[in-house]
Amino acid sequence: MRIARFSHQDAIKYGIVDDTDLVVLAGDPMFAGFDTTGDRVPLADAALLAPVIPRSKVVCVGKNYRDHAAEMGSEAPAEPLLFLKPNTSVIGPGDSIVRPPQSQRTDFEGELAVVIGRITKNVPVERALDQVFGYTIANDVTARDLQASDGQWTRAKGFDTFCPLGPAIETEFDVDAATLTTRVDGEVRQQAPLTDMIHSIAEIIAYASAVFTLLPGDVILTGTPAGIGPFEAGQSVEVEITGLGVLRNTARNA
């Protein structure tokens, strides 16, 4: 089932994607279930929004692909390398990524995003996937020069608009069959199967939940493959994952 969050006639709603329509849900499906209102909205008439606005946090995993760790000049970490993005960094499909004046190099990082559906604390690996509501696409936008100069990642990863999510949440997703591809103005910059991840989704959820409680609506970004690089104002960045669609955003300067 594919769930979208959208704007239509000045109201924000949730809907099940059904071919060219959205079947309108009675409320946020994470809390209200999948009861429908009986209304349908053509996709062409709806503006898709970020499919979830994390009520708490965006948890990210660094260097979770060996080739990306190598291009960053380091070894792959033995355990998941966690950092956080503020929920104010989240934008939706079609929204502009704003390149901040503090940075001279803003990079794309295409990633699989996992949406948590239950309060999760100290969950074992074998039950970790039971906590997942669904999956979507993310771009872990990074001010690369600030990441290097600051010596830690909060500012470089945390600017407003630095976490595009979308276009929808897929509740049933085969990670083992999916490939991630990132394009800038149509040119492929990243491409890798999701099976190249070092730490699995279940391992990441278990590890993170041993540190802090994961709440419904929290989002976990699972890492990016090799090929990261800069983009400029006016360029279009697309992240595509098999079975999840395409997340497309255009950049502009602040």
UniProtKB/TrEMBL annotation:
<dbReference type="GO" id="GO:0019752">
    <property type="term" value="P:carboxylic acid metabolic process"/>
</dbReference>
<protein>
    <submittedName>
        <fullName>2-hydroxyhepta-2,4-diene-1,7-dioate isomerase</fullName>
    </submittedName>
</protein>
<keyword id="KW-0413">Isomerase</keyword>
<dbReference type="Pfam" id="PF01557">
    <property type="entry name" value="FAA_hydrolase"/>
</dbReference>
<dbReference type="InterPro" id="IPR011234">
    <property type="entry name" value="Fumarylacetoacetase-like_C"/>
</dbReference>
<feature type="domain" description="Rv2993c-like N-terminal">
    <location>
        <begin position="1"/>
        <end position="51"/>
    </location>
</feature>
<dbReference type="InterPro" id="IPR036663">
    <property type="entry name" value="Fumarylacetoacetase_C_sf"/>
</dbReference>
<keyword id="KW-0479">Metal-binding</keyword>
<dbReference type="Pfam" id="PF10370">
    <property type="entry name" value="Rv2993c-like_N"/>
</dbReference>
<dbReference type="GO" id="GO:0046872">
    <property type="term" value="F:metal ion binding"/>
</dbReference>
<dbReference type="GO" id="GO:0018773">
    <property type="term" value="F:acetylpyruvate hydrolase activity"/>
</dbReference>
<dbReference type="GO" id="GO:0016853">
    <property type="term" value="F:isomerase activity"/>
</dbReference>
<feature type="domain" description="Fumarylacetoacetase-like C-terminal">
    <location>
        <begin position="57"/>
        <end position="250"/>
    </location>
</feature>
<dbReference type="InterPro" id="IPR018833">
    <property type="entry name" value="Rv2993c-like_N"/>
</dbReference>
